[in-house]
Amino acid sequence: MDNPSEKGMQKAQRLVDNFTKKSGTFLHPEAIVSEGVILGLAKHIDDLGKPLCPCRFYPDKEAEVQHRTWICPCADMQIYKYCH
């Protein structure tokens, strides 16, 4: 996997920072877990133009972007305030 761009990383970090602040949620207590999610979000921002949830498998990522269910913060995150 290629590393995400600096711009993608900045967008992903801003998304995470804004959502946690607005929703009252917190990052994972182990920094490596949060870093992995942010890296995955940044890579999807670079590749797809949207922060598709990196925690799931998608047979067709472009179709998932159009469907929008798993764009971060995904439906589960917005409802349950919990990232799997």
Describe this structure in words.
This protein is an all-alpha fold and about 80 residues long. It has one domain: Ferredoxin thioredoxin reductase catalytic beta subunit (Ferredoxin Thioredoxin Reductase, Alpha-Beta Complex), CATH 3.90.460.10. Helix content is about 60%, strand content about 0%. It has 4 helices and no strands. The protein has helices at about 5-25, 30-50, 60-65, 75-80. α1 crosses α2. The longest helix is centred in the first third of the chain and has 18 residues, at about 5-25. The protein starts with 5 loop residues before the first helix and ends with a helix. The model has no long low-confidence stretch (mean pLDDT about 90).
Strand fraction band? under 5%
CATH architectural grouping: Alpha-Beta Complex
Radius of gyration: 12 Å
**Number of E-type strands:** 0
> Could you name the CATH class?
Alpha Beta
Name the overall outline: globular
By CATH, the topology is Ferredoxin Thioredoxin Reductase
Q: Could you list the spans in which at least 5 consecutive residues all have pLDDT below 50?
A: none
